[in-house]
Design brief:
Number of helices: 7
Strand order of the largest sheet: 2-1-3-4-17-5
Radius of gyration: 19 Å
Length: about 280
């Protein structure tokens, strides 16, 4: 059976463009990447390992949330996943391909310049994160970002009021086992996978000025320009609200269920990913 090149995209995503999908499929055919197919989520189910051959390539064109779903769904498969940048931040794609666009990545794969890797992930329960995990009342600002992306002015105003109230009044999140950082906690903690460990960033807002700076950074998708403290970890850590309450969590940019505590650990991807960057 000939190898297949299966392009997976989320047709409900705000960045979805059928013409771009058609261009990618056409280019994959020209490059002889295999028997070309497409899967549009959620109208069509994501491929399962049992339906795929080890020589197939599953390419995911979308944001970090879409990539998260596909990569976790294919855990244990012997084939390879190709991540293509099709979202806003494209953190997973940048880890593997630098700033290359989707067409350039396809060209590199066709030219034999891709290799398989199982990069470091942040593991929380049964889910692996390639782009990062956020936890704390500050995750409520995700609603503001979504409203900005959709240019929904009415929802933007309402979500901003709710997020400000939540971030200001809800319990902060602190680090336990090991205990690091501020005992009083942070409005938002972000945990990112690096080459061989995790990097933990505790974002704080000690006064109105710091809050405004942090808010501006969040809305620009440039978190690191906000006030924060950074720690490196090579094992695991537990994050929890200092008063034991439920807190919000984002995994690869998508909302997860609220939790009382979250144990995050360094792990390796459970499926091979194709990397084209020299230092990927």
């Amino acid at each position: 059976m000939n190898p297949r090149f299966i392009l997976v995209a989320n047709c409900r995503s705000g960045s979805f463009d059928q013409s771009v999908i058609d261009e990618l499929l056409a280019r994959a055919r020209v490059l002889n990447l295999g028997s070309v197919e497409s899967v549009l989520l959620p109208d069509t189910e994501c491929p399962l390992p049992s339906s795929l051959g080890k020589d197939d390539i599953v390419a995911v064109f979308g944001g970090d949330g879409t990539i998260h779903g596909v990569v976790n769904n294919l855990a244990g498969w012997e084939g390879a996943v190709l991540i293509l940048p099709g979202g806003t931040m494209n953190l997973a794609s940048r880890r593997l391909h630098g700033d290359a666009d989707a067409m350039a990545i396809l060209e590199a794969v066709a030219a034999g310049h891709a290799r398989r890797t199982r990069p470091t992930v942040v593991r929380t329960g049964s889910r692996d994160s390639l782009a990062g995990v956020m936890i704390g009342p500050g995750t409520s600002w995700n609603e503001v970002r979504e409203a900005m992306r959709d240019l929904n002015i009415a929802e933007l105003a309402g979500s901003a009021v709710r997020a400000f109230s939540t971030t200001s009044s809800d319990s902060r999140v602190a680090c336990y086992a090991p205990e690091i950082g501020r005992r009083e906690g942070y409005p938002l903690i972000e945990v990112l996978p690096t080459t061989d460990r995790m990097e933990l960033c505790g974002y704080h807002a000690d006064d109105l000025g710091e809050f405004a700076i942090g808010l501006a950074a969040l809305l620009r998708h440039d978190f690191r320009s906000g006030p924060h403290e950074t720690f490196e970890l090579d094992g695991s850590i537990t994050l929890a609200a200092v008063d034991g309450s439920m807190v919000g969590m984002l995994i690869d940019g998508e909302p997860a269920e609220e939790v009382r505590q979250a144990r995050l650990a360094v792990g390796s991807s459970r499926v091979d990913l194709l990397v084209t960057a020299a230092n990927g």
